[in-house]
């Protein structure tokens, strides 16, 4: 499977790019820019779960076993603009819960040995 991993396919005029990958991150990035593609599951105990998470989030890619490869490239598009926007909002909200914003430094002073080194006021 590695021989076809992470390779964009040739496209004709007016056609969106298509990709094939056994890896999660190329699938994520390609789908995020609207590319169609397919993924070969690779290890049955690991990669299908990762790829399925992107497909369930709306990537429109197809996951296949090596024996099920189609004759022509899949051209269903990657994530829609709406799916990218929704997933971005969800991930930003999660990040905000995990990593709250730092307290403001307005009016704060940094002192060293009794001297003010910096004042945010």
Describe this protein with a few key phrases:
elongated, 121 residues, two-stranded antiparallel sheet, 3 helices, 6 strands, alpha/beta
Q: What can you see in these coordinates?
A:
The structure is a single chain. With 121 residues, this protein is of the alpha/beta class. Helix content is 31%, strand content 19%. The chain has helices spanning 24-32, 47-56, 81-98, and strands spanning 7-8, 18-21, 36-40, 62-64, 109-112, 115-119. The strands form two sheets. A four-stranded mixed beta sheet has the order 1-2-3-4, with helices on one face. Strand 2 (18-21), helix 1 and strand 3 form a beta-alpha-beta unit. The longest helix has 18 residues, at 81-98.
Structural class: alpha/beta
Order of helices and strands: EEHEHEHEE
Report strand %. 15-25%
Helix content: 25-40%
Q: Looking at the structure, what is the overall shape?
A: elongated
The N- and C-terminal alpha carbons lie at a distance of 60 Å
Strands, total number? 6
Average pLDDT for all residues: 75
Instruction: Outline the biggest β-sheet.
Output: 4 strands, mixed
Number of helices: 3
Strand order of the largest sheet: 1-2-3-4
Which value, in Å, is the CA radius of gyration?
22 Å
Uncertain spans, ≥5 residues at pLDDT below 50?
1-14
